[in-house]
Amino acid sequence: MKPRDEKKIDQIFKATLDLVQAYGLAGITMGKIANASKLATGTIYIYFASKEELVNALFTECRKASAAIYFTGYDPQVPFKEGFKVIWMNLLKHRVEKFEEAVFLDQCYHSPFIAESTKEITRKLFQPLRRLIDRGKQEGLVKDTDTFLLLTFMVGSISEIVRYSFYSGRTINASVAEEAFNLCWDGLKA
Asked: Is the per-residue pLDDT at 99 higher than 90?
């Protein structure tokens, strides 16, 4: 049996991200991925039995990578707003720097391709953020509403800012990031 070639997997993942950004998740096929990755379609199938398997593997990979970045510098012992801001800014920065991954992840959240087992893996990765939001509610610092809604508002605000920036060619500098954070905070605070 031939060993797994991580370089080929990286090529497949990169091609998939580029294609999803250009055509959407539903608009890609294994053949298009093969062409974009400059690999034979049969080679793609050696690594992934189907488009669904490929999408789930890439989704898991992107979520693991993003979780590691989102929580960089975060200390659960710091005051709520300070910890929330660290994660918020990390999320914003990551989505700007990895825009193609952000587009892919956003499309995956609303697609039938992602298996429940994959969703469960990623839910576990983001438990620190859920715990932080729950702590904010317990401390009376954020609205006492469903945590999912609060997280959706938080991530949605970041996603829209990043999309606007990308498609309008505007840069998100430190001043814009701070103002955007304050707007989000004003929407969440109790």
From this structure: yes
